[in-house]
Please model this.
Amino acid sequence: MKKLYVGNLPFNATADELREMFTPYGRVLSATICSDRETGESRGFAFVELAEGADEAVQALHQAKFGGRSLTVNEAKPREGGGSGAGRGGPGAGRGYSRSY
Model:
């Protein structure tokens, strides 16, 4: 299983659209569009977990056009550093992956 970062998403993209986009490469375990805590609006990026086929998905979808935008797709990297997560929603916010909410 690998978790992928998907950036430069159109702000009106849905989790269902992401699932549909990634399904040809493997079983999608989750697709989560990150939203602003205060407004609830999309922040333009998401995380997609694939059971398999993540490398193929990155090769095929990085820089692919979606909703008029060129996507950024790469493997999500664990956050560097440590700390308590204060200021980022407390401990466990973001589930330890880079690109804070």
